[in-house]
Each structure stands twice: as C-alpha cells, then as structure tokens.
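Risk register update: the risk of archive-format incompatibility is retired. Evidence:
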Amino acid sequence: MREMPSKQYACSECNLILPDPEDKKEIPQCPYSPTAPVSNDWQGLVIIMNPETSEVGKRMGVTRPGSYALKVNVR
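Archived output:
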C-alpha cells in the first residue's frame, strides 16, 4: 500500500512553498523569513519563473523564482 504524501508547508509571510525537511518529523522554516509561522493550510499554487516580468509575481510582491501559495491560513 502506498503512503499518501503529506501536504507541504507554506510561509505565512512570503507564501513560499517550503521543501520537505530532511528529518520528516520537523516542521520546515522559511529561509527568507525564518521567524514567520508556517502552515500546511494553504490554497492555490502558482509557480513564478521570472518575477520581474510576471504580472502575478508583481501583484504578489514576489522577488524570487519559486512555488508560492495564493493564500496561507495561520491559526
């Protein structure tokens, strides 16, 4: 039986989708906003390849290429 993948975490400050940590028991931290809370309760996925020319990237305030959540819910 296959194991279901867990939903990835997103940074509540910059909305960056975070890579899984090497130790699967740890919660990842954002490399750009290390003090910001992270959440696995997020919606929408957008991949920004060139933030300087991307209208979506500009509206989101993205300055680095990567995968981003459109909305991150922090409780």
